Amino acid sequence: xxMAKTDLIAVVGCGYVGLVTAVGLAEQGMxxxxxxxxxxRLAACREHQFPMLEPGLEDAARAAGDRLTFHNVREEAWPHxxxxxxxxxxxxxxAGYPNLSMLRQVLMWIADGRSRASSENVIVIRSTVPPGxxxxxxxxxxxLIGGEVPVVANPEFLQEGxxxxxxxxxxxxxxGSENRGAAEGLRDLMAFTSAPxxxxxxxxxxxxxxxxxxxxxxxxxFANEMARLAxxxxxxxxxxxxxxxxxxxxxxxxxKPGVGYGGSCLPKDVAALVSMGSAANEPMxxxxxxxxxxxxxxxxxxxxxxxxxxxxxxxxxxxxGLAFKPGTNDVRDSPGLQIARELLTAxxxxxxxxxxxxxxxxxxxxxxxxxxxxxxxxxRGADAAILCxxxxxxxxxxxxxxxxxxxxxxxxxxxxxxxxxxxxNAGLDLVRIGTSRPVRHAAVSA
Length: 446
Ligand code: UDX
Hints:
6-stranded parallel beta sheet, 14 strands, 41% helix, binds uridine-5'-diphosphate-xylopyranose
């Protein structure tokens, strides 16, 4: 496909995936029109003020200048671009199955604004969608406009906090298409990276995205389950998992135990696989167990705290970390936020701190949650503190000053991030998930 044809790109959906795709393509010299339905979000995007904390994104958008513009789907017609990337949310719907209603709306918008059918315009589904969705979208658009428009499944593998870097240098480019020309056109568009390209059918590409996230979630649940047993047996969970991960067939990433996985993808995608399995009469037992272990981690940390404090009612607890992981201000399915909510429900007096999450970023239902801007201040008068997100400010906490600020001495490490020796030297008692007595393991050497 020559560059003149690929020059105009539309990206529908200015959320995480859409913005990174739009900015990433504009950075490569393409003219990108990004669409959304939310006028407030569009106004902020035009000022390059994006809702998420993502290194380099605002600078790259600014550098792209006029090549990247933002438009309202409700006010503008579809501009007949060479490629239309659809990156709208596919939230967890009934029984865990993704809700595709926003994708359906985008197809209708494309059909409405279309004066003629053309196989020159390729629709690329970037959202995470169940197998069969691209084929359904292809039939749907054909029915709506009476012509052939190729629909390609091109799932992304972006990690929050390094999403632009992942876009520039992806681990792989996965293109699912029933139309060879469209697949090759997309491959050429992405030729700025040296990533391996897999061209396959749409269902394979769609399912591979779920497989990838599900495998990561499963590893984390494995690490959590093994860590709990290690605690019971008096073994060191981190050294044990380090030893497991050094087997090159296994590898050491995504084996870190803690409060469990969160975020916008892993929990939702595991739930979707469970739901797809039941619909296909292929029960996904490993996925169910992965979910259960993840939920158990959050319950265990509350129980650990309740045991150590001999009840939660009226106890002041500092929850350190509301983002689902460090480096982001995203609280979707965040273990820290869920733990804070459950502690409140159990009658505790909860204060929270996060390096990037401020109270205006919390859902309206969490308005009563107090978010304090300084970690030591959050510890003032606390009976206990829980580490839920391993922000450097918390991992490297000055334990002597923390001990001065706190009323009690209890630290609960929900991420295996604190050094127990440093804590005990400051007179603090550190417990981890699954234990209700202070641990005295030696620090792990690399
Ligand atoms: C994930 C996938 O990594 C990415 O490829 C996909 O496109 C979107 O979903 P993200 O949601 O940004 O990315 O988070 P990730 O960095 O993978 O972490 C997910 C969760 O697992 C976090 O809550 C993190 O704290 C937790 N985690 C991760 C662990 O508990 N232990 C680990 O060893 C690794």
